[in-house]
Amino acid sequence: STLPKIHDEL
Amino acid sequence: MNIFRLLGDISHLLAIIILLRKIWMSRSCAGISGKSQLLFGLVYTTRYLDLITSYISLYNSVMKVVFLAASYATIYLMYVKFKATYDHNHDTFRIEFLVVPAVALALLINHDFQVVEILWTFSIYLESVAILPQLFMVSKTGEAESITSHYLFALGVYRGLYLLNWIYRFWAEDHYDLIAIVAGVVQTVLYCDFFYLYITKVLRGKKLQLPA
After folding, report:
1. Distance CA B172, CA B175 (A)
2. How many angstroms from the chain centroid is the CA of residue B123?
3. For chain A, is the Cβ count within 10 Å smaller at the N or the C terminus?
């Protein structure tokens, strides 16, 4: 899983 | 961005607007749990700290500001402007039983032991249970005004649509975030009982009455 570097979801 | 997440955000925005409008127009917060609103305010505050530091898109930034502003406005209306109409007697859920475990879990299970990441993780865990005081209040009063049930339905659907968004992103982008997914499943499951009542009662024009 490509861990989310930044959280792009609200 | 995908259609599931866009519809989810719209449903979320709709829920927040429905609630704010209901309180403002009726000048009353009867039947609404102030504790849940405080928890939501805490969720958005701890999650949207990156509003200043990282820019993702205009949409992302605008929506974060709107959610924060609407949340604070709702808390202001409930605890200041219309606090005389706040139903203390039925809004009795002990929110420390939600906040403390969320803090503990965020410190134990997270992607990265950094302040912003821990706060993000805390906000994800807290959001999954933030509606409990409201659902508890509806069960204590035994009923909910139809506008309140529309609010709850839109709020429950939003995270349900996010589940579809995460399935899509896993399939299309090979990207998934287990913390958000597990918390999102818990959050959506908590609404199932309400969804059943909403579909079978409110949509048939009946009042949302919980079996006494």
Report:
1. 8
2. 11
3. N
Considering only the beta carbons, identify the residue of B56, B120, B174 that sits closest to A2. B174
Residue with tokens 């979801």: A9
B162–A contact, CB cutoff 8 A: yes
Per the DSSP assignment, residues forming a β-bridge with B143 are B209
| Domain span at B40 | 3-204
Instruction: Report yes or no on B54 lying in a domain.
Output: yes
Q: What is the C-alpha separation between B60 and B143, in angstroms, rounded?
A: 36
Distance in angstroms between the alpha carbons of the first and the last residue of chain A: 20
- pLDDT tens figures, B53-93: 999 999 999 999 999 999 999 999 999 999 999 999 999 99
Inter-chain touch B12–A2, beta carbons under 8 Å = no
For chain B, the straight-line distance linking the first and the last C-alpha, in angstroms and rounded, comes to 43
Per-residue pLDDT tens digits for B102-120: 999 999 999 999 999 999 9
* CA B22, B27, B30, B34 torsion-angle sign: positive
Residue B209 in domain = no
Radius of gyration of chain A (CA): 7
